[in-house]
Amino acid sequence: MGTAKGERRRQELVAAAAALLREGGFDAVRHRAVAERAGLPLASTTYYFASLDDLVTAAVDWSSRVELGEGRAQLDALTGPDDPAELAEILLDLLMGTDSRHSGLDPVLLRYERLVGAGRRPYLAPLMREMRVELDALLNEIVVRSGVPLGETALRDLVAIIDGAVINALIEADPDPRAAAREVLLRTLGSGP
Question: What is the mean pLDDT of residues 23-32?
Answer without folding.
Answer: 94
